[in-house]
Amino acid sequence: MKKNVLVCLLVACALCSVNAGRCACAENTFEASLAEEGLSLAEFESIATYYYLNPQPDKLLSVVKVVLSQEELIKDAMHFNTFAHLVAAVARSDSAFFQKLKNLDPDYTGFQKEALQRIIKVTKDFISPTANSPEHLDYLWSEFIATGSEAPVKKIIGVLGYPDTGMNMVLIGAAEWSLTSNARHHEKVYSIIQEQFFTASGQTKEKLKKILSDINKK
User: Fold this and answer.
1) Is 52 in contact with 146 (CB distance < 8 Å)?
2) 3-state class of 140 per DSSP?
3) Sorting pLDDT into bands at 50, 70 and 90, what band is 28?
4) pLDDT reading at 218 higher than 80
5) pTM metric for this prediction
């Protein structure tokens, strides 16, 4: 198992098992781009996973520049859209950062300009999604990473109470897995789960109990 830095654009810096040579190549290219912006891989991972704990808008702006330099990443809609939502969640509450983001526009052309304009549009039209798909769960986690807000985590917890039938089973499983994983990385997520457990009932309470049990086993 080798860490794929592109997957770090998802909220939990997950591990992936892909072709080792291809993964190493992508990582080396990405690290070189980070270095050009004066950032280390560790700093990037911290921003992509714990931004709310130590907000540094200028470093996030540098990360945006790095991401814009990665054509393959921009073409990967799942990762890029999740990253764009994270940046937008910061920009919508930080007008100075948003202005700096918009000021980048004249520096880019082609696919890079289009990608930057997508981030700007997501900021202007920002909507915190309902938790109706695994993609929505990624967006909600990116909001939490950007802001530390309890609201997106509570939306994800709400999924646990959906009727456990049909396609809901996939969504519930994804919510359960992501809550367990992120609670291991974020003390705040663990605290939110604990608080919600005491007031929850029925299926939600049972699943939160299992999540807390699984976390405490590690």
Assistant:
1) yes
2) helix
3) low
4) no
5) 0.87
